[in-house]
Write a structure and sequence with these properties.
single chain; mainly alpha; two-stranded antiparallel sheet; 9 helices; rod-shaped; DUF3053; signal; Lipoprotein
Length: 233
């Protein structure tokens, strides 16, 4: 019996290709990752960024690193905006006497707010850059982009829309404090009682206080929008 050594060589050379094809898990990993993004993030109300279990990481393969773009941003965003509650408390203005007495605290709160905005800008820029570098099949890209928009772009932009409103309220409060200091010979503040000797000064003070009240309303509206985005209600 004669062996065709040339055919045998070709058969042996083809074996690794067959084995490699049989061991390719990428389609299953991509399908599992896509389903996770759709059902656990896109379809859920509010901003939901669940941590992956060990089994999920294994089932996603290399796609787990793509999910890390989203989780890393949300960790960074949480750290960036965490001081917001303290900033709001520090800058709270409940009365005219409060505004005057706590002028330096309001000024410090405004500076802290600017730092928060800068930190969030940095985190969003990092996430956007990482997102732009991802290599994805079209079926995954469509779902991933929706998940990224919902968990990165929208919350970041919503927070950044709140910051200017809060900053404007702080600025109005400082303007009131400066006006009272400038006209302290005309304005007497004792607790909740305010006495103004000059009608012209009284009119200007009322105008400034009305502006501050309007800014406070805008802050509340911005906070409501933020809550709706984050919680989905």
């Amino acid at each position: 019996m004669k062996f065709n050594t040339r055919s045998l060589t070709l058969l042996i050379a083809a074996l690794p290709l067959v084995l490699a094809a049989c061991g390719n898990k990428e389609p299953e990993q991509r399908a599992a990752f896509t389903q996770f993004l759709q059902t656990r993030i896109v379809d859920k109300p509010g901003v939901r960024v669940p941590q992956l279990s060990a089994a999920e990481k294994e089932s996603f393969g290399d796609y787990a690193a793509q999910y890390a773009v989203i989780t890393d941003f949300n960790t960074g965003m949480s750290s960036s905006v965490k001081p917001l509650g303290d900033v709001m408390q520090k800058g709270a203005m409940r009365s005219l006497s409060d505004i005057v007495a706590r002028r330096d605290e309001v000024k410090a709160a405004r500076e802290m707010l600017a730092g928060m905005r800068g930190a969030l800008d940095t985190e969003q820029a990092k996430a956007d850059a990482a997102h732009a570098q991802l290599k994805q099949a079209d079926d995954l890209k469509v779902v991933y982009d929706k998940a990224f928009e919902k968990t990165v772009t929208v919350p970041a932009n919503t927070f950044k829309a709140v910051f200017p409103q809060v900053d404007a309220a702080f600025a109005s409060g400082l303007q009131v404090a400066d006006f009272v200091e400038k006209n302290k010979g005309q304005i007497e503040v004792s607790g909740s009682v305010v006495k103004v000797q000059s009608p012209a000064v009284q009119a200007e003070l009322n105008k400034l206080l009305q502006g501050l009240n309007n800014q406070a309303k805008e802050v509340k509206l911005a906070q409501t929008r933020l809550r709706a985005v984050m919680l989905g209600n």
